[in-house]
Amino acid sequence: MRRLVLLLAVLVLAPGCARTTVGGSPVAQSPLDAESPFGQEGSTDPSASEEPDPETAPIDGEVQGVCAKLKWTDLPYPGAKAETPPTQINYDSTFEQSCRWTTKIDNVEVGVSLRFREGKQITIERTTGDWDVKGRKVSYLDRSSEEGVEPSCVLVVPYDGGGLGIIIIDSSGKFGTVCDQGRKVAEVMIDRETS
């Protein structure tokens, strides 16, 4: 009887959950420039969640803190030396630290970005699941099959008294799944947290 009631509830609710179509034209975006999936603590301005344009975003200061802990050689992408700096640093003013490593593989832009918030964990609105990585809960959102979004994985982990956000974008399909790449970055960052 309970199964019948549950089945009827699902059948009644399913039509209300159907996708709706929104009119309009798609807007071209720069590669790896997507709406930030991370929660904006205390922000009520919807534009505050948008990632800055990488073409005009500032690249200033020295690579230090969280951004200095990850090296090109930690990433699966070929050709870079460990001492090569990130592609961009300090480009997202909504976080205390931000950095990005991007490169082209067969004319497809792939990359990793990190964001660090001091004193507060970073959240994502919805998750696909959680992993235990070296004793830490790493929550992730696999966006590799979502329409209209670059194949990507968003991960968050408590880190150094605050929160670390990791985004992997890779539509090349040459380096394993995007979330496996993100998990490896999380492992590297956790290993180097106190160094």
Provide structural commentary.
Mean pLDDT is 75; it is low at 1-35 and 40-58. The protein has one domain. With 195 residues, the chain is of the alpha+beta class. A seven-stranded antiparallel beta sheet has the order 1-2-3-7-6-5-4, with helices on one face. The protein has helices spanning 2-13, 178-191; strands spanning 88-89, 97-105, 108-117, 129-133, 136-142, 152-159, 162-169.
Throw out a few tags for this protein.
disordered N terminus, single chain, 7-stranded antiparallel sheet, alpha+beta, 13% helix, 195 residues
Topology:
Elements: H1 2-13, E1 88-89, E2 97-105, E3 108-117, E4 129-133, E5 136-142, E6 152-159, E7 162-169, H2 178-191
Antiparallel strand pairs: 1-2, 2-3, 3-7, 4-5, 5-6, 6-7
How would you state the average pLDDT, rounded? 75
Tell me the span between the first and last alpha carbons. 59 Å
SSE order, as H and E? HEEEEEEEH
Instruction: Specify the helix fraction band.
Output: 10-25%
Q: Describe the main β-sheet briefly.
A: 7 strands, antiparallel
Helix-strand makeup class: alpha+beta
DSSP helical segment count: 2
Principal-axis shape: globular
- Provide the low-confidence segments as ranges: 1-35, 40-58
Beta-strand fraction estimate: 25-35%
How many strand segments?
A: 7
User: How large is the radius of gyration?
Assistant: 19 Å
Strand order of the largest sheet: 1-2-3-7-6-5-4
Number of domains: 1
Protein name: DUF3558 domain-containing protein
Keywords: Signal
Signal peptide: 1-20
Organism: Lentzea miocenica
